[in-house]
Amino acid sequence: MQPRYSLKTDLRGIRQSPRGRSSPQPGPGASLGTSTEMLILNTSGWWGLVSETANNSSWKIFRGNLPTVHLQAQQRCEGCHSLFGEYYCGICHLFDRDKKQYHCAECGICRIGPKEDFFHCSKCNLCLSLSLRGKHKCIENVSRQDCPICLEDIHTSRVGAHVLPCGHLLHRTCYEDMLKEGYRCPLCMHSALDMTRYWRQLDDEVAQTPMPTEYQNMMVEILCNDCNARSTVQFHLLGMKCKNCESYNTAQDGRCRLPLEEQ
């Protein structure tokens, strides 16, 4: 059953009243020499009497006791056909300006479109840009999780969601803030963007930065956050490179140790 909203009836009309006395005479051609009053709807949504006299051009607003009618929730008024919103959803009962909105039945809410630029991923349970169709990693109901940075809801947020390569979601604004401090997903530590160019720069820096003698033959076990592979590599303060995917997004997974021939 649709909700019913209480709205003031549209009683627009002009009436003449000599010297301000009430004399209800509907008159669309009211003279400027007499006081005119008409009922209008102001910006706050309240009805009132507005009067103007020939000697005083200022407007005075008075609240009046007007009859109330009950209307079904809809885009236009049944009585005066006034438009309540450029966009109206008969399911969500949402009134708004035209922002190319559309209602997604799978999401259960209205989203800002245009609709033809988005598709609904049934596994992620979220509408995503067409550019991500077949190019993102799906995680079951990932949109129902809160943003790991601001801890606010993602599914119903007015801020767009950014899909990381690992499949986790962040608010687009939170993603931009995160890149100012780091490059890894706050949940799984996977690289949040393509770091290949930076890894090659780090290769040059490691080659040009020799370690002190006591650390030159030090080996360490590492775990790669990008491919989850384990490997044993030479310890270096600037970073330790994964042997499997050549990423420097690694973590030490054991104590430093010397090769057996030097122990």
UniProtKB/TrEMBL annotation:
Pathway assigned in UniProt: Protein modification; protein ubiquitination
Segments forming domain RING-type: 147-188
Reaction equations catalysed: S-ubiquitinyl-[E2 ubiquitin-conjugating enzyme]-L-cysteine + [acceptor protein]-L-lysine = [E2 ubiquitin-conjugating enzyme]-L-cysteine + N(6)-ubiquitinyl-[acceptor protein]-L-lysine
Subcellular location: Cytoplasm; Nucleus speckle
An example molecular function term from Gene Ontology annotations: ubiquitin protein ligase activity
Pfam families: zf-RING_2, zinc_ribbon_6
Top enzyme category: transferase
InterPro entries: RCHY1_zinc-ribbon, Znf_CTCHY, Znf_CTCHY_sf, Znf_RING, Znf_RING/FYVE/PHD
SUPFAM superfamilies, A to Z: RING/U-box, Zinc hairpin stack
Region of interest (Disordered), ranges: 1-31
Main localization of the protein described in the UniProt heading: cytoplasm
Record field: compositional bias (Low complexity): 14-31
A biological process term (GO) from this entry: ubiquitin-dependent protein catabolic process
EC number of the protein: 2.3.2.27
PROSITE patterns reported in the protein's UniProt record: ZF_CTCHY, ZF_RING_2
GO cellular component labels: cytoplasm; nuclear speck
Domain CTCHY-type, chain residue ranges per copy: 84-146
UniProt KW keywords: Cytoplasm, Metal-binding, Nucleus, Transferase, Ubl conjugation, Ubl conjugation pathway, Zinc, Zinc-finger
Quaternary context: Monomer and homodimer. Interacts with AR, MDM2, KAT5, PLAG1, PLAGL2, COPE, UBE2D2 and GORAB/NTKLBP1.
Functional summary from the UniProt entry: E3 ubiquitin-protein ligase that mediates ubiquitination of target proteins, including p53/TP53, TP73, HDAC1 and CDKN1B. Mediates ubiquitination and degradation of p53/TP53; preferentially acts on tetrameric p53/TP53. Catalyzes monoubiquitinates the translesion DNA polymerase POLH. Involved in the ribosome-associated quality control (RQC) pathway, which mediates the extraction of incompletely synthesized nascent chains from stalled ribosomes: RCHY1 acts downstream of NEMF and recognizes CAT tails associated with stalled nascent chains, leading to their ubiquitination and degradation.
Name the UniProt record assigns to this protein: RING finger and CHY zinc finger domain-containing protein 1
